[in-house]
């Protein structure tokens, strides 16, 4: 047994990494502060050497290590500004790490900026040659691959036209076709799949798959979690220049999504707090509505759904003092998954006891469409007495909504519609779903098929 | 540094095709196309001839026909000045390549210098027949100094171009500064006047400090006067140019890593 294991580990150690970053940090420097930015002042102050020292620094990557085994596809994900592209540039050798080491084995081709170095005045044909030479091919190699490149770019009839006459899609396709035909051992891809139409994107993905089959290494930087899950053997999640998690793509994507939700929660909480605060600052009956006009407002919040301006009005005889969305465990939250339970907890304060009151609630999607609206009067609850501090919970057992951002109307008013406290679109929450279905409502559903209909088993 | 210097040899294919591209692209879209490379110096020569023989005749003895004498200095000067102003800007205008592709940055200023050298050669195709027509150019061993002068100028220009290109990334004012310095430098060099004139000789020591003086004099001797008496200066400048080139390349190499960030 022991022998077998050591033998296996011996085999494992022979898989050499194609890319290896160890403890890599990258600090971007700003050379010279504002006052030293001219040669004149540098000369006058005899400080050229000092000015060439960094004066402001910005850490783009901090102590990042990862290694990509030969023949595997490695995904790097993260928000904008998280250091993904810096990592890619380090691997490509365009910039050097401030500390740590970057090792890459084999010929690299970087799909970072497609068609960088194309000259607009000369023909596509000449540009293919020059671009190929820039990427390290010889003239003969390009000659041999020329037809393949042109066919891949789907530009046969335009290849002799100057590149300046190309559309941006044609430009990108040609750049992609040259770069991918360099036949690299290591391919670096930075978010370039968005360049073409659907058909071209598929062709690119096929090409990547071909690369994978021929045991080449791909480093893929993308925002598309879908691509990471489908394509990559391993993934790395960067945030603020730190490696947050790496390993199995499904796990990393999961961790990333959780973090994104937390961020959204904070954002929504802040947005809601701001909305409530600004709406509550104005005098009661703001927006020029006086009490009389308001009393004519129908109790049903759906009828004025097209005036989707947030706000707050009412006499405040009964005041809504606090609103919270509660998740399954009763914790306040702003992000929910489709199908989860959701409870809206409303705290109230009545300045004096009232016997005429209706609680209303309305749910709007981002387009301002009312997904659902109801109140206690419509549901035939007869008000009797409300006094002092009170609490109301509106519980939804299963949030059968499609993914999106939703806003809430909450109101306490008289049966005839006179508002005590009307909160219009002040509360926001988000519904997430792994299924990207559409509409305003997701009915509970299931599909059944006769045996003649067959589907492939889901991957993984 | 020397490893990178050796790499330059590997990039010769790239440099060659980029120079060809620049030359092709320059006149793309014009009717006369590449022919302009000859028409431009020809027109310049005709204009000078007209102005300095008819409108304000220069009758200084020993440098007649004056327009041709002047042209012997102006052609290499144009190569020099255009190379410097283009290469100074080359890293910034080629920023996309430096930032987004693994691209040897020194290729850009080198291509600027070489492209202008080709234009210089094309200008010679106008100058040399004119010199022969006026019986100024004599077939002699003195002509063997011509490639030497070109080589010295090439190395000298490359050295300066590398320094300027690298520094301009950090100090953009060099672009504007350079335009003025080049104008001053042009008049401080015996191109439109001859160093044999008495009022020039008085300042000989100052003129000797100007490296381009020796190049201009060499060209004038080789092409216009015949006997080459300035070759010692040319060789000395050659040694100086090699040192300048090495210093320029060293500086460029030192600052290389900052280009992708500062461009």
Description:
- The complex is a heterodimer of chains A (460) and B (263).
- Chain A is of the alpha/beta class.
- Chain A has a domain of 129 residues: Coagulation Factor XIII, Chain A, domain 1 (Distorted Sandwich).
- Chain A is built from eleven helices and 18 strands.
- In chain A, strand 8 and strand 9 form a beta hairpin.
- In chain A, helix 5 packs across helix 6, helix 5 crosses helix 7 and helix 6 packs across helix 7.
- The longest helix of chain A has 33 residues.
- The two termini of chain A are 30 Å apart.
- Chain B has one domain.
- In chain B, helix 4 packs antiparallel against helix 8.
- Chain B starts with a helix and ends with a helix.
- Chain B is mostly helical and 263 residues long.
- The chains are: A alpha/beta (460), B mainly alpha (263).
- At the A-B interface, strand 1, helix 2 and helix 5 of A face helix 2, helix 5, helix 8 and helix 12 of B.
Keywords:
heterodimer, A: 460 residues, alpha/beta, Coagulation Factor XIII, Chain A, domain 1, 6-stranded mixed sheet, 11 helices, B: 263 residues, mainly alpha, 12 helices, 0% strand, globular
